[in-house]
């Protein structure tokens, strides 16, 4: 892992809060998306169409949100170098953005934080590596 001056957030996707995972999967497959990962029994799926990635989550979130995954490329492969979520959190705080949920800065590896934009849209920075 490396820390750079750029605010590199990682792989981007849109996480959708859906009411019916099966109906949503069928709809997005008609738009050309294919299931890439997930567990339909646990009511979450990740779908891809080219470089576009969406997550379908039933009963997990109240609102749709933007999601970034530090340490992953678009195919969820671990990058050799990336900016750790805890470093991103320090930079956000220094810029005056206070997370509504924060990563434990005393840990290493997987962690997440969430911020809310001025219009109330949640942004999840979710590091899996």
Your description of this structure?
This protein is α/β, with parallel strands linked by helices and 129 residues long. It has one domain (11-127): 2,3-Dihydroxybiphenyl 1,2-Dioxygenase, domain 1 (Roll). It has two helices and seven strands. It has helices spanning 21-30, 85-94, and strands at residues 11-18, 34-39, 44-49, 52-58, 65-69, 111-116, 122-127. Strands 2-3-4-1-5-7-6 form a seven-stranded mixed β-sheet, covered by helices on one side. A hairpin with a 4-residue loop joins strand 2 (34-39) and strand 3 (44-49). The longest helix is centred in the first third of the chain and has 10 residues, at 21-30. The protein is globular. The model has no long low-confidence stretch (mean pLDDT 94).
Care to give the gist of this entry?
The chain is an alpha/beta fold and 129 residues long. The protein contains two helices and seven strands, in the order βαββββαββ.
Low-confidence stretches: none
Work out the number of β strands. 7
What is the N-to-C succession of helices and strands? EHEEEEHEE
Span between termini: 10 Å
Average residue pLDDT: 94
CATH class: Alpha Beta
Strand order across the largest sheet: 2-3-4-1-5-7-6
**In terms of structural class, how would the helical and strand content be classed?**
alpha/beta
CATH topology: 2,3-Dihydroxybiphenyl 1,2-Dioxygenase, domain 1
- Number of structural domains: 1
Shape: globular
